[in-house]
Amino acid sequence: MNQEELRNKLITTAQNGLTMLSVSKRMGISSPILSQFKNGKVCLTENDAEKLGKYLSQVYIPTEII
Fold it and tell me: I want to staple 5 with a disulfide (CB 3.0 to 4.6 A). Which of 1, 15, 27, 28 is the partner?
């Protein structure tokens, strides 16, 4: 997953309810860096991007009540 795809996945996940603070704590990426990444101001290191990509691919947030 490239940086732009990862950013879009992060934005979608945040819109569905996962807080950036929880992602930050879970991934060990500082909140300001994660916020700047989400807003397109910085790119993540290759290592952080790989970790975040793996994490986001495993996250499931229900978007509707059954």
Answer: 1
Q: Please give the single-letter amino acid code of residue 46.
A: E
| pTM assigned to the model | 0.86
What are the φ and ψ backbone dihedral angles of 32, each rounded to 5 degrees? -60, -40
Q: Token pair 């940086």 is at which residue?
A: 3
Instruction: Give ∠ CA 50-24-54 in degrees, rounded to 5.
Output: 25
Query: Is pLDDT larger for residue 63 or for residue 45?
Result: 45
- Is the pLDDT at 64 greater than 80? The verdict is no
In this structure, are residues 61 and 16 in contact, taking their beta carbons and an 8 Å threshold?
yes
